[in-house]
């Protein structure tokens, strides 16, 4: 099936040298006079206040939509950022206006010494939220210490409510542990506890209503995510369930009341009357939300990615290891942010364009 989306020529977005080439139908205007001194504001006036840091490439699951079936050539440990490098970069970004950091991976809870990293980041003046995306397997062991260290928000990934499917999708056991992690995070007061659910045609699309029912007595925000193409994940549009279709399928059974959402957020939010929890739909492919993008990413090997779907990267690790001063790092970051494009290339182009496997970006 081919969706009727505006398919932009790939050279108009993301891949082009010149970010000023804005697609004509797009609501952002490029400012050629952008000041390099405004490090985290791009040429379209988007201020980047949200940084996602991948702490590790390894994961204790092998989700089919995330990790290439044939495995990966893992980056040697000495090429990954050290704790001190992570803390230095976080401090630098927060000094320029970042107010929220999310720790991700791979599986961030596999990172040794994560409690100290959380504690150091949590005390950065100006940081308002320190979040983590995790598969939850190690959370029961670590949550109390992480919470005490300053972890304020949690997303736990769970794509199915059926144990046998969990094992097929993740190529590992652990379903019950994830449910325990979700209950524990709720008990520890994480609100809303976000649950990330990638919806795949022919695999878990028949669980949309089960997840909706699951929010009745749980204060969770189930976020249904469209399947996105990354290197080695076998993406094809036949497996993508558009968010509009997900919503329609749920609305056939439950009324959905829209809730106000953060204009920079990725999810459009709804509540079912009488349910404690709520539902979110993340339509990165069929209804991209690039115009409100305020996100930057640092990979575990220290590359800054200004767009999840762009292959452009600048290695802050290499710069730090060459002895770059903070001012030199800021100049590099500013130049990269200044090259950010108006929007991503559209799913059909993305499926053809090289990027990293998701497990080495961090979502
Ligand atoms: C890459 S994982 C890393 C953090 C952690 N290991 C976890 O499982 O949450 C971060 C998020 O990316 C999502 N994700 C990975 N590959 C994806 C894809 N191809 N399309 C949509 N979401 C994806 C996962 O479902 C997860 O919620």
From TrEMBL:
SMART domains: Elp3
Ligand binding ([4Fe-4S] cluster 2): 290, 293, 307
Organism: Rhodothermus marinus (strain ATCC 43812 / DSM 4252 / R-10) (Rhodothermus obamensis)
Cofactors required: [4Fe-4S] cluster
Protein's recorded name: GTP 3',8-cyclase
Record-annotated Radical SAM core domain positions: 43-273
Source species taxonomy: Bacteria, Pseudomonadati, Rhodothermota, Rhodothermia, Rhodothermales
Gene Ontology MF terms in the entry: 4 iron, 4 sulfur cluster binding; cyclic pyranopterin monophosphate synthase activity; GTP 3',8'-cyclase activity; GTP binding; metal ion binding; S-adenosyl-L-methionine binding
Residues involved in GTP binding: 52, 102, 133, 194, 295-297
Stored InterPro entries: Aldolase_TIM, Elp3/MiaA/NifB-like_rSAM, MoaA, MoaA-like, MoaA_NifB_PqqE_Fe-S-bd_CS, MoaA_twitch, MoCo_biosynth_MoaA/MoaC, rSAM
């Amino acid at each position: 099936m081919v969706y009727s989306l505006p398919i932009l020529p790939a050279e108009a977005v993301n891949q082009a040298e010149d970010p000023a080439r804005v697609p004509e139908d797009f609501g952002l205007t490029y400012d050629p006079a952008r000041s390099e001194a405004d490090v985290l504001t791009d040429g379209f006036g988007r201020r980047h206040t949200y940084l996602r840091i991948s702490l590790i490439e390894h994961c204790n699951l092998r989700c089919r939509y995330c990790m290439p079936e044939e495995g990966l050539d893992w980056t040697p440990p000495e090429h990954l950022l050290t704790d001190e490098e992570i803390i230095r970069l976080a401090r630098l970004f927060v000094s320029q206006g970042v107010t929220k950091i999310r720790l991700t991976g791979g599986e961030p809870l596999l990172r040794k010494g994560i409690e100290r990293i959380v504690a150091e980041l949590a005390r950065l003046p100006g940081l308002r939220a320190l979040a983590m995306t995790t598969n939850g397997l190690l959370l029961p062991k670590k949550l109390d210490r992480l919470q005490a260290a300053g972890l304020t928000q949690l997303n736990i990934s769970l794509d199915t409510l059926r144990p046998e499917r969990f094992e097929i999708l993740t190529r590992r056991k652990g379903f019950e542990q994830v449910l325990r992690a979700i209950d524990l995070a709720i008990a520890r007061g994480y609100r809303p506890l976000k649950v990330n659910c990638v919806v795949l045609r022919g695999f878990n699309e028949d669980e949309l209503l089960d997840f909706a029912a699951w929010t009745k007595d749980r204060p969770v925000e189930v976020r249904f995510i469209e399947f996105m193409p990354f290197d080695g994940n076998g993406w094809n549009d036949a497996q993508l369930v558009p968010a509009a279709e997900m919503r329609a399928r749920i609305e056939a059974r439950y009324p959905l009341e829209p809730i106000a959402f953060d204009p920079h957020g990725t999810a459009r939010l709804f509540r079912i009357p009488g349910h404690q929890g709520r539902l979110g739909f993340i339509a990165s492919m069929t209804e991209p939300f690039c115009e409100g993008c305020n996100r930057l990413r640092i990979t575990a090997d220290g590359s800054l990615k200004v767009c999840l779907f762009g292959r452009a990267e600048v290695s802050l690790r290499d710069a730090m290891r060459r002895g770059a001063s903070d001012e030199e790092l800021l100049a590099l970051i500013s130049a990269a942010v200044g090259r950010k494009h108006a929007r991503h290339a559209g799913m059909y182009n993305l499926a053809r364009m090289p990027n990293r496997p998701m497990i080495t970006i961090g979502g």
